[in-house]
Specification:
With about 650 residues, the chain is of the alpha+beta class. Helix content is about 35%, strand content about 20%.
Amino acid sequence: MADEKESKMERAREYDASQIQVLEGLEAVRKRPGMYIGSTSSQGLHHLVWEIVDNGIDEALAGFADAIHVTVHKDNSVTVMDNGRGIPVDTQKKTGKSALETVFTILHAGGKFGGGGYKVSGGLHGVGASVVNALSSELDVKVVRDGKRYYMDFAYGRVKTHMKVIDTGLPENIHGTTVHFLPDPDIFRETTVFDINTLTTRIRELAFLNKGLRITIRDERPEKPTEESFMYEGGIKHYVEFLNKNKDVLFDEPIYVEGQENGITVEVAMQYTDDFHSNLLTFTNNIHTYEGGTHEEGFKRALTRIVNDYARKNNLMKDNEDNLSGEDVREGLTAVVSIKHPDPQFEGQTKTKLGNSDARTATDHLFSEHFMKFLMENPTIARKVVDKGLLASKARVAAKRAREVTRKKSGLEISNLPGKLADNTSKDPAISELFIVEGDSAGGSAKQGRSRLTQAILPIRGKILNVEKASMDKILANEEIRSLFTAMGTGFGDDFDVSKVNYHKLIIMTDADVDGAHIRTLLLTLIYRYMRPLLAAGYVYIAQPPLYQVRQGKMRRYIDSDEELQTILGQLPPSPKPVIQRYKGLGEMDASQLWETTMDPEKRRLLRVDPSDAAEANEVFTMLMGDKVEPRRNFIEQNAKYVENLDV
């Protein structure tokens, strides 16, 4: 005991000033990149592009740029070019360096801190360019302004070539900034390969959010380079049309509202469809506020109030009828709310929820005024909106009793659950997992093979209801769906509360065949439409059961595909003859096999479901699960080549 005390005192004496690290320049960014870009995964890699693109968009918001060009080169480096004013090149008084060098080498240096450079801006508020520089093995920048072209390059955030003039006598109307960078593979160890679909989807979204701005994306990596250009004069109005392209709409043109109050610009575009669910996207300074915030609250509050006021004033509701709820008036609604705020305050580092109270007030006032005027001037459309809400209200009342069943562990005994849930013994959601298993046979194996402490099993019978085509009362009348809502403990739809979740892993475990894929798609549609925060929290997973087992002597291997099977068979000795078992369903595995291949945390492989782009996910679910046949047929015909060899 005395030795331990003496050792502790010795370590205390050794902890002195020499052990205090001082990270200079951009060293802190390279040391802890996740603090600045969220992660060093593929998501963080693409974040580098958005930081440079955001600088060009800030120039467009300020009225100085109307074009941005993004190029992905063969070596996976990226060039972003805009025709804005060009980063200043004169000496910055505080640093004594050129403004260009300051922007790329010093954190929190830029024109976005109230100095008059920008009224509104997105990005990382002045750290974007320097962070991209710090996390790139190579970066060079060209600036054209005042008839001259300036050049400077860097390596790992440090200056290689100081700013110099490389061209003179250029026309005064030519100006802008071109940034070329190569992500550092020592930082982005998971991947340095940019996904063109991820880039294209976000670039299309940015073009919708900034009407009149043309953004072009070019990919030079294929043998035949590809290029797409996006520009929408109608802005978010065209965005709503894009989101509804595979839906039946209640009126032809989206309602569009635009206004400004106390320096806050508010844009709203909305259109009703015959769907039973809503799709509301909100943005602040082009940043997608996934968790909503005050601007979303202002919009919802105004929408509910105005629809009810209009219905009352025009005798479309009886005096003894209750007001329509927010959920009622939003059924079937597709809406985009985009605000530009001079000083946005976001909750959390991820900037997914807006906190400014003045944004709530401005959105409410501006939308209320314009929306009521629109309804008064368009009584036919107004009647359709009210009727849609009234039908939703009736379905809500019919579903009220069923909603009460969706409580888990607090007031409702698990033994009463219709879904035959075999719960785990731990009450800690962080280590608890819920497996949704198809059929009683697979459910039985899963229950026997599971870890009872952490793993719960919920068997379902066949294909659940397609919620894309069903009203809430029909959804809650479905036993399988009700069981899932109950087991998760979160509620659903507008009542969803992710903090009440009972399991931090919801694992869809279906057969590795076409029917299993269909059931998985139905479950994902349900989760996306009514439990979407589970996806944002990273709680939804897909199990990966094997297709084959190959045995030869004491050797036993599990195989995932026909191609892998042929490769393995070609490598095995001819004797003894290998035994091949094809698993057409999870029910064909005994408990030990199911545990070993699909449920054991030490050996299993899970795919985490992460719809990084809500608009694209919405489009896919609508196309695959909605009423319109033509878009689904086109999708199948275009993608049939990828599954032509599928063993069904």
